[in-house]
Amino acid sequence: MMRLFKIVAFLEGISLLVLFGNMLFIKPTNPELYKTLLFPVGMTHGLLFIAYIALATMFKIEENWSWKKYAMVCVASVLPFGTFYVEKKLL
Question: Which conformational region is residue 64 in: left (phi greater than 0), alpha (psi within -120 to 50 degrees), or beta?
């Protein structure tokens, strides 16, 4: 189960970076491409984010994580490169 959480954490981090890249680099140069990429990238990121938080909550309950560790894992999901840190250092 921990392996699944690490995979989801990695994919969620990648999807967040792709979403930011889409907004920062593609939108100003090619607005039409931005509109076609926004929905699939955003939907993928949203689903991975929900899975990440759900798995973190499951692990908090099953492995009796402290509230501090749980909060750090959840906050890391909204920071760029945060999930990579969690995957390597906290898990």
Answer: left
